[in-house]
Amino acid sequence: MELQKLVRYMLDMGEILIRSGAEAIRVEDTLERIGKAYGCARVDVFTITTNIWITVHTLDQSVSQTRRIRGYVIDMEKVEKVNALSRVICSNPLPLEEVHDRIMQINQTSRYSEKTLLLAYLLVASSFAVFSGGTYMDGFASLIAALILRIVQRMGQRIRVNIILLNTLCAAVVGLVVMLMVSVGIGSQIDKIVIGNVMLLIPGLQLTGSLRDLINGDIITGLLGIVESILKAVAIALGFAILLLQIGG
After folding, report:
1. Residue 27 and residue 47 in contact, taking contact as beta carbons nearer than 8 Å
2. For a disulfide at 166, which of 46, 83, 161, 189, Cβ 3.0-4.6 Å?
3. What are the extents of the domains in the chain?
4. Each residue of 58-92: pLDDT tens digit?
5. What is the pTM of this model?
């Protein structure tokens, strides 16, 4: 029973890492070290973006468990907290009950507030619009479009719209809003305004992590992440393309 608990808690930590944006090699190395810290003779871990498989071996028994991973949100704070917990365990193994309590505390860690995220959206969108050559009025238009983009994203997340479809919808809405604003004199350069909002949608961090997985030799995980990133980018382009085709652009 203790070995079963250990493997379950290892899976809990691995799930937090994967869902928070950690690369596969970090997850596998962390879980292997934790298992050996508790006296396992051998720990086999295989991780991809949607699953974790663990088999631990002691002198008299072996235990295998798997965990299906559904959805993720980049959260480097949780990654750091799990890493800190793993270092504590490796230096001085904690009672399993305490490990469970700490995992629960990490899971309950809140991300940035919605107000903070919204402020970041507004600053990023307006800054990139101006940085790419737009006027200050273009930056203001991009700020308004970013506000509407965030509202659409939140609505889509609440009703659990598929991320690919949501990206297409967000791109189309942003394009429509930008065109309407330019038509009434709010901003003048559609491309510069749109660029500011596209920066909020492109999966740059995910693509970087996938390339890192690929370089580290985790071919399956890296390819899965790259394909997903490409699909998201295509969805963004498709959203703008559909809008342009509808208005005859």
Report:
1. yes
2. 161
3. 2-107, 114-247
4. 888 899 999 998 877 778 889 999 999 999 999 99
5. 0.78
